[in-house]
């Protein structure tokens, strides 16, 4: 079986979630990649070095610059003539593109797989991760998105793929990129961080995120996350949200500060190796999944903890 | 401009889903069901567009069992003008839903279709993108802001790194994210009024769409359970634990 993995890249580098998608794809068969973008020669060369990769198809052009699904999906559909499965990381961009490809191919996508059981059978989370479904696809071709935390990352080095240029139809003329407001941070990225400190509604404002959560995160070399309630209230930007409908994370250590532990939040972090919860309510559901819990007022205990590390 | 809003009847978000003992699915007997929260946001956005004079008519559509009528009545009570129910007692997958919606789009010719980005039961996050593909329309997914300007719509999207804005030619497909708006509650008089708003009943066969599932669910199981751990007595103990984990000095 030949698989085609859509490569997500940023600033000339292949993103981590793609490496997990490559691992999932390698369980299905030969792995080919698609690098689409503007000025992506370097990305293609880097992608060709990923362990286990065969061919790297490169579509270089302005139309592919911002991963617009209207332009990228037809490109993928063309290449699917000679591939049996399309695999994308279940990131915002992957989720935007893959279903458009699936429908054009008349395929029912299997979203956010956790495992590859066989060439046509996969497990995937449903109901905020409270029910894991094993599904078998009867479609001739497969379209799959991959939950990055469920698969090891393929090695960035060791492969010797060949790079081949493809020319697609270019701009479909339906959509254009206007601009982006990307959060800048010196911290590790949420989805690849080893340690995460997340704050909830209890933080009360963005100032407290700066003065209470960030110093602890600094001490731990951690990324900063948040509950939906904290994002909705404007304490932190939307890209901090961890959960069923936000980011899925599985760090070594996840510290939940002033987060109650709603199922929608747990869905995004319960595969963390060690969960630490700080909450003033000893009955808070977060303690049912926490390995280590501290009952206390975060405004007192977090600064004290930070000072002792 | 007409706006089409597809809505789905799902388990209420406050209910903790329980997997059936026989592994055949999630137990929905006697469980509270509601409109998918992202679809409520979609209905609200359509109503706001109508209040701004951008939308002229709001058509809500649902695909599901006969009880999905209740969900459509909720949409009507919030402010949709009329509804279409496509009844299927068997589950229709996102691809089948998108095919049915594509037929409705062909009939109704809406300027915008606004859907939820995902349903909180199957968590697929596909239908809007698929509908966009099948209708050849552009898609603005995970929207946190929607601005209609002439024959384009500017959509601000929640992406992994923050926010991104795209400009789409209308007609277009939009899927909602959590920050787009806060849906209103239907008032009692509006709930009463909704009862007499038109609701058409159809079947997939009426549209000539084959909705045979492509995915077969072999088994549904509970995820591995986490055991509750220990509670530490004070900050010193927690600091010691963090050091033992090797993440702090
Ligand atoms: C469709 C949908 C999707 C959703 N998706 C997500 C998602 O992806 N991610 C997500 O997180 N949520 C999501 N939610 C929201 C979720 O249901 C909860 O509302 C949310 O997670 C609650 O956030 P919280 O824990 O910060 O707030 P709360 O539930 O209000 O909890 C605050 C906690 O702080 C504690 N506290 C208060 N003061 C202090 C103090 N001084 N010191 C210590 N502790 C204190 C309280 O005891 C409480 O436990 C979603 C909801 C819906 C409907």
UniProtKB/TrEMBL annotation, chain A:
GO process terms (BP): fatty acid beta-oxidation using acyl-CoA dehydrogenase
InterPro entries (alphabetical): DHS-like_NAD/FAD-binding_dom, ETF_a/b_N, ETF_a/FixB, ETF_alpha_N, ETF_asu_C, Rossmann-like_a/b/a_fold
Cofactor entry: FAD
List of residues binding FAD: 201, 227-228, 241-245, 258-265, 279
Alphabetical list of Pfam families matching this protein: ETF (PF01012), ETF_alpha (PF00766)
Coiled-coil ranges (or none): none
Subunit structure: Heterodimer of an alpha and a beta subunit.
Role played: The electron transfer flavoprotein serves as a specific electron acceptor for other dehydrogenases. It transfers the electrons to the main respiratory chain via ETF-ubiquinone oxidoreductase (ETF dehydrogenase).
Similarity comment: family membership: Belongs to the ETF alpha-subunit/FixB family.
Protein name: Electron transfer flavoprotein subunit alpha
Organism: Rhizorhabdus histidinilytica
UniProtKB/TrEMBL annotation, chain B:
CDD domains associated with the record: ETF_beta
GO molecular-function term, one example from the UniProt record: electron transfer activity
Keyword Transport annotated: yes
Cofactor(s) it depends on: AMP
Domain Electron transfer flavoprotein alpha/beta-subunit N-terminal: 23-211
SMART domains to which the protein is assigned, alphabetical: ETF (SM00893)
Keywords assigned: Electron transport, Transport
Source organism, top-level taxon: Bacteria
PROSITE patterns hit by this protein: ETF_BETA (PS01065)
Single biological process term from Gene Ontology: carboxylic acid catabolic process
Name of a matching Pfam family: ETF
Quaternary state and interactors: Heterodimer of an alpha and a beta subunit.
Function: The electron transfer flavoprotein serves as a specific electron acceptor for other dehydrogenases. It transfers the electrons to the main respiratory chain via ETF-ubiquinone oxidoreductase (ETF dehydrogenase).
PANTHER family in alphabetical order: ELECTRON TRANSFER FLAVOPROTEIN BETA-SUBUNIT, ELECTRON TRANSFER FLAVOPROTEIN SUBUNIT BETA
Family recorded in the similarity comment: Belongs to the ETF beta-subunit/FixA family.
Name the record gives this protein: Electron transfer flavoprotein subunit beta
Species, as recorded: Rhizorhabdus histidinilytica
């Amino acid at each position: 079986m030949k698989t085609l993995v859509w490569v997500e890249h940023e600033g000339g580098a292949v993103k981590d979630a793609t490496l997990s998608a490559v691992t999932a794809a390698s369980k299905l068969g030969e792995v080919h990649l698609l690098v689409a973008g503007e000025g992506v020669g370097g990305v293609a060369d880097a992608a060709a070095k990923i362990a286990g990769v065969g061919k790297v198809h490169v579509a270089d052009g302005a139309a592919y610059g911002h991963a617009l699904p209207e332009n990228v999906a037809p490109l993928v559909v063309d290449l699917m003539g000679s591939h049996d499965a399309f695999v994308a990381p279940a990131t915002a961009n992957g989720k935007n593109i893959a279903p458009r490809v699936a429908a054009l191919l008349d395929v029912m996508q299997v979203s956010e797989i956790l495992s590859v059981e066989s060439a046509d059978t996969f497990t995937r989370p449903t109901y905020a991760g409270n029910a894991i479904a094993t599904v078998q696809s009867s479609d001739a071709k497969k379209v799959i998105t991959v939950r990055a935390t469920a698969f090891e990352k393929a090695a960035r080095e060791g492969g010797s793929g060949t790079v081949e240029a493809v020319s697609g139809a270019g701009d479909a003329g339906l959509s254009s990129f206007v601009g982006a407001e990307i959060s800048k941070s010196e911290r590790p990225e949420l989805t690849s961080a080893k340690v995460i400190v997340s704050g909830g509604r209890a933080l009360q404002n963005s100032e407290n995120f700066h003065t209470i959560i960030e110093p602890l995160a600094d001490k731990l070399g951690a990324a900063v996350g948040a509950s939906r309630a904290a994002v909705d209230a404007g304490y932190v930007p939307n890209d901090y949200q961890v959960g069923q409908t936000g980011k899925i994370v599985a760090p070594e250590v996840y510290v939940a500060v002033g987060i109650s532990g709603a199922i929608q939040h747990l869905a995004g972090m319960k595969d963390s190796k060690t969960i630490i919860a700080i909450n003033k309510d000893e009955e808070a559901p977060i303690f049912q999944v926490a390995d280590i819990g501290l009952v206390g007022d975060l405004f007192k205990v977090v600064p004290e903890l930070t000072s002792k590390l | 401009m007409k706006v089409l809003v597809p809505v789905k009847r799902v388990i209420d978000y406050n209910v903790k889903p329980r997997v059936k003992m026989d592994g055949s699915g999630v137990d929905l007997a006697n469980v509270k069901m509601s409109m998918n929260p992202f679809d409520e946001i979609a209905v609200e956005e359509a109503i706001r567009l109508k209040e701004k004079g951008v939308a002229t008519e709001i058509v809500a559509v649902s695909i599901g069992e006969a009880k999905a009528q209740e969900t459509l009545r909720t949409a009507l009570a919030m402010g949709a003008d009329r509804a279409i129910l496509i009844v299927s007692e068997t589950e229709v997958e996102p691809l089948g839903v998108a095919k049915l919606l594509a037929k409705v789009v062909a009939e109704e010719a809406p300027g915008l279709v606004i859907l939820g980005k995902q349903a909180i039961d199957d968590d697929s996050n596909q239908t809007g993108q698929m509908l966009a593909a099948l209708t050849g329309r552009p898609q603005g997914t995970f929207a946190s802001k929607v601005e209609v300007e002439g024959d384009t719509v500017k959509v601000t999207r929640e992406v992994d790194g923050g926010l991104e804005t795209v400009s789409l030619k209308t007609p277009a497909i939009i899927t909602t994210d959590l920050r787009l708006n806060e849906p209103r509650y239907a008032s009692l008089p509006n709930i009463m009024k909704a009862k007499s708003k038109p609701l058409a009943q159809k079947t997939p066969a009426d549209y000539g769409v084959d909705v045979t599932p492509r995915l077969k669910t072999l088994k549904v199981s509970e995820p591995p359970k986490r055991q509750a751990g220990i509670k530490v007595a004070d900050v010193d103990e927690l600091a010691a634990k963090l050091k033992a984990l090797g993440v702090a000095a």
